[in-house]
Specification:
The chain is 41% helix and 17% strand. The chain has 344 residues and is of the alpha/beta class. It folds into two domains: 2-180 and 232-266, Rossmann fold, CATH 3.40.50; 199-230 and 269-343, UDP-galactose 4-epimerase, domain 1. The strands form four sheets. It has a seven-stranded parallel sheet, with helices on both faces. It has a two-stranded parallel ribbon with strand order 7-10. The protein has a two-stranded parallel sheet with strand order 8-13. The radius of gyration is 19 Å and the shape is globular. Bound molecules: UDP-4-deoxy-4-formamido-beta-L-arabinopyranose (WQD).
Length: 344
């Protein structure tokens, strides 16, 4: 039996595939390669002995998904395939709703048709919007979406709640905070198409000489140093959280029986400011990374970090790697791949 990982050739996806392999699970990848390189698959295969079927396809294509379930013995799904740029979602909201909602409906429909009931969904801290309190727990009220990307994740969660309430589907909603870092081998890592929107890949591309400087979006927030606070979580820890969620679904214990759908915060449980991230990255690369203050970015929350006690208690999962490890591992990937997988 195998776990189908949609979006398995992406940054988080590739690390999830490696983590599931290391946990002894067989995996099938489906990816449309719209935001991933086929070279990623070669790198993932370098870290996972044995068979790793890869299907090029769209998780929102019902016929394609039916064929995958016909050809492979799928007993669970980790659904990561989605568009995930906040800025792009503001420019192309309908593309985000089509891609992120249709794929979620399609995957759930095929699973229910085939009697496959274990579903791990890649959600995001963005569903909390601008939280009234921080750290946020899974009971924190989901604020008004700050952008169509966030709205698509909140809607996807609701779609899966409704699907689980009317079928045997059982769903773990994993709310990622800010993934960073790379597998310690330096063979897989973050390789965004075009100029990255996120802080850490931008910092690392400045360190690699691909960008001139880091623009710090706002230095007048009510935080320790005036820059915004986020909960950065090592992508290897995050990936292992998916394996822990599948194990919990397999055991069928606790809330999955009662509610069918359970949300878990996957973060480090602490916040760091933008300047602290830049300082940690500078320490990792061995020189001061150039940066300059600019205006705030519209839609940014001042501060958000996670309370992860539920994941610890029910999944037996906690993030083990700190910010320094994230920066060292991210740099280890970036310096080996200054132009991403194209450097291979
Ligand atoms: C982090 C902090 C910026 C870039 C988004 C999604 C979230 C998740 C991660 C998918 C903020 C500041 C950034 C830069 C900066 N994606 N920043 N200069 O916005 O917290 O979260 O990406 O799951 O769902 O919402 O991440 O890395 O863009 O920003 O100062 O060049 O860094 O203002 O405070 P964000 P980010």
């Amino acid at each position: 039996m195998a776990t189908l990982v949609t979006g398995g050739a992406g940054y988080v996806g590739g690390h999830v595939v490696v983590a599931l392999h290391e946990a002894g699970r067989d995996v099938v990848i489906v990816d449309d390669f719209s935001n991933a390189s086929t070279r990623t698959v070669d790198a993932i295969r370098g870290l996972t002995a044995g068979s790793l079927p890869v299907v090029e396809g769209d998780a929102g294509d019902q016929a394609a998904m039916e064929r995958i379930f016909d050809r492979h013995r799928i007993d669970s799904v980790v659904h990561l395939a989605a568009r995930k740029s906040v800025a792009e979602s503001l420019e192309r909201p309908l593309a985000y709703y089509r891609s992120n909602l249709v794929s979620t409906v399609c995957v759930a429909e095929v699973m229910i048709e085939r009697g496959v009931d274990r579903f791990v969904f890649s959600s995001s801290a963005v569903v909390y919007g601008e939280p009234a309190e921080t750290p946020v727990t899974e009971q924190t009220e989901l604020g008004p979406p700050l952008n169509p990307y966030g709205a698509s994740k909140a809607m996807s969660e609701q779609i899966l709640r409704d699907a689980a309430a009317s079928s045997g589907l059982r769903v773990a909603l994993l709310r990622y905070f800010n993934p960073a870092g790379a597998h310690p081998s330096g063979m897989i890592g973050e390789d965004p198409r075009g100029t990255p929107a996120n802080l850490v890949p931008r910092v690392m591309q400045v360190a690699a000489g691909r960008l001139d400087r880091v623009e710090v979006f706002g230095c007048d927030y009510d935080t320790s140093d005036g820059t915004a606070v986020r909960d950065y979580v090592h992508v290897v820890d995050l990936a292992q959280g998916h394996a822990a969620a599948l194990d919990a679904l397999e055991r069928g214990e606790g809330p999955f029986e009662a509610e069918g759908t359970v949300a878990y915060n996957l973060g480090a449980g602490r916040g760091h400011t933008v300047l602290e991230v830049i300082a940690a990255a500078s320490e990792a690369v061995g020189f001061a990374i150039p940066h300059a203050p600019v205006e705030r970015r519209p839609g940014d929350a001042a501060a958000i970090w996670a309370d992860c006690r539920r994941a610890s208690a029910e999944l037996g999962w906690t993030a083990r790697r700190d910010l320094g490890a994230m920066m060292r591992d991210h740099w280890n990937w970036q310096r080996r791949h200054p132009d991403g997988y194209a450097s291979q």
